[in-house]
User: Fold this.
Amino acid sequence: MRPAPNTAPLLPSAATVRARREELVVIVSPASARRGMGRVRRALVVAVALLALGAGAAWAAGAFSASEMDIDAGVGCFDRPSLHADVTIFHAAADPVAKCGRLWREGVVDTRRGPSSPHLVACTGDHKPVYVFPGPDGVCERLGLVPLPADYAPLGTAHARAFRALFEIGELRPGGACLPPAVAANQARAKLRAVGATVAVSVQGSGPCAHEYRAVGGRIAVVTSSAAVAEAEQRSVRIGHALSGLIEGLGNGRCVSPAEFRRQAQRRLAAVGLGAVEVRISGRGRCVGGSYGEGGDSKWVEFFAE
Amino acid sequence: MSEPSDVQLWERVRSGDPLAFGDLYERHVRAVQSYCLWQRADPRQAEDATAVTFLEVWRQRERLRLTTASAVPLLLGIATNVLRQQRRARRRHAAALERLRTATPAAGPGHEEETIARLDAARELRAASAAVRALPRREREVLILIAWAELSYEEAAAALAVPVGTVRSRLSRARARLGEARLRPLSANTPREESQR
Assistant:
């Protein structure tokens, strides 16, 4: 028996665990259940606002690293000084405290309170949205956040257009091809010029293939990766797509014999140009199980008959 | 102030305290996700199964009993059930899963190195666990709980809700199936095993 395989690189980072913990607590908290409909409505409002800005996808994916640009990812007015409090979210404003104060006075944040606003403090954190809490100065630090910088400014229209354009550029590796970073950067520049945006585009890393676009320090970077990684990743994704329907079927208690499974899998792979991918089946069971492995840079795929 | 024990945390979770549940999640999520990775060798499936496991723990908190000092056997027992019925359980929590997936911080500057390390680890995991995953499900579950998750016989029995004798016999069959020639001494991984014989 081998020692336990090292799973550390595949486990979530401490920051991810913290972020998911926060979300999990919100999901299960009685407040969200009691006021669930209100939360859903507010979430929809912010989703629409962010998508209109064009940064919605990036915000959801947490795709932007620290910069003055990505600090604009929505503002949350919390009804008490806790990350677990009920929250009203709106699209970024030049003065988040003033905007939340108005919502407090209108009774939007806390319906039990009269037409007044408590002392409010604006903070920011890992994900770069703006959090506004009622409470004394120092509440940000107590919650593990930092005070919102004095020079905070939401994105202007030009940057919003740039972001939207960036996400419309789409597939960086069409059909699994390796797109040179310089070509990807030129595509991004042309797209940005077409919408009148003046955001600089640079290449980050020395790999031969463009991997993804990222907003870094007020500019857009084409992040590179090695061809081997890029191609294997791409092939892996395509294999997953090709076989997903077949694998889903296995989860419904259906027994598919190894021979039948291999035939169907090969047919599906061949239909998307992956006929060279070898389908292996190990184990001596009657039915093929739903989990699978890949190897040789996704040149073979292995299922298990249980 | 000292950290609360799992038993203390669990009492608070049972009474419906979301923050205690958050603490439990933060304390044990990596153990649960490792277990799911060993069972499935597929990072995405393991991630989903881990999230569903905790959501199921919360859903069933009032009827679940903690019978060991550590909450890990209970969590791995729920994870075992989730893995057996992954698609059904995933459907039940689809909306929450989607929210949890988005709760991920931005990739840092070492993103490419991390990606390569993840790919390497995934390959190594698949290779290492191929033989184990070829075992019948019940034997595989026992073997992974004891040899890799390092549970004692009693804890594995609690996790799987079976008698200790059943754990022993399944483990014995699993070892025989894998073949003595391929076995390293399990005691290297399970220091508590010998004392329990």
